[in-house]
Amino acid sequence: PLYKANRPPRDEAAVxxxxxxKEALAERGFKLMGCSGxxxxxVIATLVEGLFDRFEITIAGSDKDLLQLVRPTxxxxxxxxxxxxDEDGVRAKHGxxxxxxxxxxxxxxxxxxxxxxxxxxxxxxxxxxxNAYGDIDRLLEAARAEPSDVGPPSIRRxxxxxxxxxxxxxxxxxxxxxxxxxxxxxxxxxxAHDTEPTTNMETPxxxxxxxxxxxxxxxxxxxxxxxxxxxxxRVSSNPKKGPMKxxxxxxxTVGKTYFLSTIPDCFYIPLEDGLRxxxxxxxxxxxxxxxxxxxxPSTLPEFYQALDSFARDINxxxxxxxxxxxxxxxxxxxxxxxxxxxxxxxxxxxHMEDKEYKKVWSAAERLFMDAQERIxxxxxxxxxxxxxxxxxxxxxxxxxxxxxxxxxDILLKGSHEVGVHARNLxxxxxxxxxxxxxxxxxxxxxxGSRSVGKHRGRVMLTTDTGTHAAKHRDRxxxxxxxxxxxxxxxxxxxxxxxATKFRAEIEKLVxxxxxxxxxxxxxxxxxxxxxxxxxxxxxxxxxLVAIAEDALSDDxxxxxxxxxxxxxxx
Length: 570
Known about the structure:
By secondary structure, the protein is of the alpha/beta class. It has helices at residues 12-27, 40-51, 87-94, 101-108, 123-133, 136-144, 153-161, 163-173, 256-261, 300-314, 332-347, 357-379, 416-429, 484-494, 499-510, 515-527, 531-555, 561-569; strands at 56-61, 74-78, 84-85, 212-217, 245-250, 267-270, 285-286, 326-330, 384-397, 404-410, 432-443, 452-461, 479-481. 32% of the residues are buried.
């Protein structure tokens, strides 16, 4: 990744030594925790987030971005200088509080993570600005004001000229605090227990040691932790995942708003006039005015205020539990309008293509990313996110043949490149993109009469096919009835299947593919070792099988009712 560009080449001998260190730590009772696709810093942040209110924690490491985790029960031990910092120590050393470390490093840069920082803004200026304005958002707001009290003028110009770079730096320095690990497994025993030192280890080589959590200690004695097996002890055979971010999309009038309104005790933030399609049999929880009318945010700041009000006030814990486990935002088209209005206002443009494309899109992209960060902040409080989106036919080209085909995908009003970039931005952000469509039975007409289509209900597509763009992070069937009860049951039953089961199901599905596709799948299967990669491969193979079966049905006789429903859905 780009943020590792400044790091020295990997020392293979050091890697081998590190493996032996891990084995030795396991022998001494330390728990080794990791998660494929995540940095050690993110695993540490997740552990701290889940344990800080129960234990006194010391983090040993060398990365400055870990300082943002320091709080009354969490200290940071620098393994490079042997200095331990608490909250007061962080303020004394860097001039800012631990909660401001992310913005501080984004301003001054961090060579370890290849974060450039803002030109002409050093540690002294960064600390002064953050103490004056609190965070980067308020600092930039003050810098854009006329007249502005942000000074000196060279710093103000640099902030405004490098705002996009600064936003990217914030994302790079931000720690993930919802890595899918089983935090409770830490409580199985002490972080370490008394044993004799391992005697046959070589002298540790000089290397940049990876950051590690030294352990959470409790005053209650417990039994020694059993030794973990394998090179990296798996966190859990059934890892606890963080709250999901899901986009519910589909054709117009298919019932996306109705589906979301059936989620029990879901809180609703409407951004479009879509409340008319909600279920009359389910209570509506949303911001209302004095006359009990739903309030629809009309600007991006108002949308942010609605998010903050929900997280801070409406969904504040009561007796240790939050009233709402789900937040529905209806929908993406409304959010896009707010973003475009803000971007065009900032660039003094009449519409998104009124000025140079890259300049206006840069403003919109930053605002989209800000919106995602705000929504993610609510998600980190333990709330699942549901975002509705309209769908439209999108023209694509096959990677190998270049043939043009059409796919139903998320609809965004931005034209040309703007729409493509925005669609990719949101598809990448979401854990699930679930497509609701009509299940239609096609009754082929006899000679001289037309075929007739009959609606047989609604279905939810969870896997990418040749005709519908969808994806999921959990082990879901490719097609479900489009009801909340069926999706909830599938999510509960489908998460975290063992790797051996994934392999068996993939091998079973391969038999339905042609020889070339089967060979490609088996080659990838041989390289896939962990459950995450196998789950992704399983999802892709489901899509290939669905396309193959759809093509076969087009060549056969009139389908049965069951086959017609499935084929129409796919």
